[in-house]
Amino acid sequence: MEQKPCLFTNDGVLEDSAVVAAVESPMEIGVKHGWQEVAGPFRVTDSDGPTVHTLDGNPAFSVYKETVNKHSSTRVTEESFFEVAKGYPFGIARIDGEQIVRDPFEVTDNDGLNCFGDVPEGEFVHILEGQPESLIQAAKQAKDDTGAEMGNPEGLFFFDCISRVLYLEENFEHELEGVRTDETPLVGALTIGEIANDGSGHLDYYNKTAVVGAVDNV
């Protein structure tokens, strides 16, 4: 995950930049992930941005490994970590809202865990697990939450986390089918994190989450 210039512009290839587009068209948003709790909550007792050092005062990797080994047929090691962890993310607890998923992707030298996105110290997290069927249903529910089936929008946007695709593999096509409609054009991207507002609060940065936008008057 080394950062490099990747944004193509008329002024060259840029790093640490963004493209922002504002549209006047009304849009309804659906945000769902489909992951379910298997253990926790664990208190984040030491973290630094996206790096979780300790959970409940113990090295984060040790806690994670002990927990996931009870549920996974593949033993968690530093070498197998990414392959196993794509099916067992963290969920940051939210009152009266769906958890914010955080995707651990590597073990640090001090038995911490690096994640895609910040995990603030003092938060409570669960370890989550998903099945292809629950993730596919969540993407469909995100579309349904936009009212796309009833409102007949002019376009659908679908932003899906690349790590969901890595987990779903050949089932990713079924997730796309759950979001598509016969009459409405669908465009989108596979992303490393999704920024959205689920309608109940401020913007959040999500991992492993399906975000659907239904747009009128495109």
From TrEMBL:
Residues 60-198 form the FIST C-domain domain. It comes from the Archaea. Pfam families: FIST (PF08495), FIST_C (PF10442). InterPro entries: FIST_C, FIST_domain_N. SMART domains: FIST_C (SM01204). This is FIST signal transduction protein. It comes from Halovenus salina.
